Amino acid sequence: MITTNDFCERVRACQGSMYALAYGILHNQHDAEDAISDTIMRAYANLSQLKNEGTFKPWLLKILHNVCLESLRSKRPTVDIEEQYDLKDGFSYQDVNTKLVLRQAVSKLRQPYRTIVILYYYENLSLQEIATVTGQSVMAAKTQLSRARTMLKNALNKEDFYRETV
Amino acid sequence: MKQFDDMIFDLAKKEQLPVPEHTAQRIEEVLSNLPPRKEKVVRFRMMPRVAAVAASLALALLVVMPNVSVAYAEALSDVPVIGAIVKVVTIRNYDYADGYHDMNVEVPNVDESSLGDAGAAINKDVDALTEELVNRFYADAEAIGEEGHTSLSVDYEVLTETDNWFTLKLTVFNATGSGMVTYHYYNVDRSTNEVITLGQLFSDSSYAEVLRQDILAQMKQRMADDPSLVYWTEDSDMGQDFIELDAEHNFYFDANGNLVIPFDEYEIAPGYMGTPEFTVDRSVFEGILNPEYQNLF
């Protein structure tokens, strides 16, 4: 059984991944913090439902993913969730000092491709784990990653970045 | 594809988004506020197998039977040895879990034959509160569906039970909204079977300032003793203290008759300080205590 101290340690170990995912979806530090706080409380309250302690990270990120969707939904309840999830204004550099080339390209991806790329490339999650987090099949996650890869390649090509780097 | 993937992995590694200091602080605040988990199993592991089985059966009878039979619960209260622990029984349990939403609510029922009107008033208040919480839980669970997680738990504890005084503490952990832990204290004067508020303990309204000054001094002392502690005082970033003790403020007596004043999260300190409590020594307020409460403990 995971004790409170174990739980806190595991959450601390995942805080970078949590922030990357929450910020990637919500584009706002304050909202990301709220979502992370809410997620920690929910995860703690539902810890008994975690059957395999080895899957703590994807389990935690799955809750966070759901909380972020809820957050988007509650902020603009009259707008379709899919429309909201596809934020058009891209990445905000408000909280980041340096301009990051890949992140800029990733931030311009539509959902669900942005989330897939963050989880796969930045957080090194497997397709199985991504499927758990996003609540879909492994095949669907694989297809989305393939499309995201193409989109990313095109975006970086447009910036003349890929040609210069590779 | 592999070449492209390797390049993206490499770039992603270099472009990891750092967790802002403020975010890390918020995470620490939440973690330090988590209530302790109930680790009931550990107690049984420490017993020999036979004793553990016997204890489990006894506990099952004590817990299950009062739940299924009010008559049984009342009968148990007549047995002197265990009378004290069945003064309050769990009259209803609400359990629900579907993988996304989890609820465990234990609704206490105070023995009205012992506590009279006060017992009836507490039961009515607890029923209304738990019903509202449970209804809100189901409504949230339906609205959120499989898009999120919610959790509600309600537990209770008899803090004080003497010939003169009775205190029931209700703990609500609600992760459905933005709330966390809240406490409700019910204090009963057993000589009159009245629910007593903080204001009713005292002969005049000076109690609020008397208690405030003592708590403020304790806050400063605790911070002097341990620099990691933060309470809001006039010296803090907030520039003032936020101790406001109205007649309905939560309180209970400890075993020595000292007054314990609990505060909610964020009421007098940052969230990571949890729900602070301050024990005010009896000698501080004895002079303004109403005569009927002078010899409670």
Summary tags:
heterodimer, A: 166 residues, mainly alpha, 9 helices, disordered C terminus, B: 297 residues, alpha+beta, Actin, Chain A, domain 4, 2 domains, six-stranded mixed sheet, three-stranded antiparallel sheet, 8 helices, 9 strands
Model description:
Chain A is an all-alpha fold and 166 residues long. Chain A has one domain (4-165): Butyryl-CoA Dehydrogenase, subunit A, domain 3 (Up-down Bundle), CATH 1.20.140. In chain A, 70% of the residues lie in helices and 0% in strands. Chain A has helices at residues 4-26, 29-45, 56-75, 81-85, 101-107, 113-122, 127-134, 138-158, 161-165. In chain A, helix 1 packs antiparallel against helix 2 (29-45), helix 1 crosses helix 3 and helix 2 (29-45) packs across helix 3 (56-75). The longest helix of chain A has 23 residues, at 4-26. Chain A is globular, with a radius of gyration of 16 Å. The model of chain A is unreliable at 76-99 and 162-166 (pLDDT under 50). The longest helix of chain B has 33 residues, at 112-144. Chain B has a six-stranded mixed β-sheet. Chain B folds into two domains: 40-195, 2-Layer Sandwich (Heat Shock Protein 90); 203-293, Actin, Chain A, domain 4 (Alpha-Beta Complex). Chain B is an alpha+beta fold. Chain B is flat, with a radius of gyration of 24 Å. Chains A and B meet through helix 1, helix 2, helix 3, helix 5 and helix 8 of A and helix 1, helix 2 and strand 3 of B.
Write the layout of secondary structure elements.
The complex is a heterodimer of chains A (166) and B (297).
Chain A (H helix, E strand, L loop, with lengths): L3 H23 L2 H17 L10 H20 L5 H5 L15 H7 L5 H10 L4 H8 L3 H21 L2 H5 L1
Helix pairs in contact in A: 1-2, 1-3, 1-6, 2-3, 3-7, 6-8, 7-8
Chain B lengths: L1 H13 L6 H12 L7 H6 L3 H20 L1 H8 L10 E10 L3 E10 L1 H33 L5 E12 L3 E10 L6 E9 L4 E2 L11 H19 L26 E2 L5 E4 L14 E4 L1 H4 L12
Helix pairs in contact in B: 4-5
Quick structural gist:
The complex is a heterodimer of chains A (166) and B (297). Chain A contains 9 helices and no strands. Chain A is mainly alpha-helical and 166 residues long.
